Amino acid sequence: xxxxxxxxxxxxxxxxxxxxxxxxxxxxxxxxxxxxxxxxxxxxxxxxxxxxxxxxxxxxxxxxxxxxxxxxxxxxxxxxxxxxxxxxxxxxxxxxxxxxxxxxxxxxxxxxxx
Length: 114
Known about the structure:
Layout: E1 5-9, H1 19-27, H2 30-38, E2 42-46, E3 57-59, H3 60-67, H4 71-79, E4 86-88, E5 91-95, H5 96-105
Parallel strand pairs: 1-2
Antiparallel strand pairs: 3-5, 4-5
């Protein structure tokens, strides 16, 4: 029976949109590399919650970064009913599938100049 050791590192506090860069930096961290060499059974994971379904919800900052739109544009998309949302106190969340639907519904196969 293997006694796997686990280290969890959260990227939740990394600046929105830079989580991938943060993860890459962690992968290249000399300290973590030396830990891996000393403990071959060591598993380094992201300890963000992925089992509870919250990974399917995005906040304003994540949606603004993903769609390259302003906060005002998001407000317009909410106001005109284009983008469903959930509000808890003053924080607004969007379902990932609603963002994908919005992109798919507005997809154009028209090319550029011929």
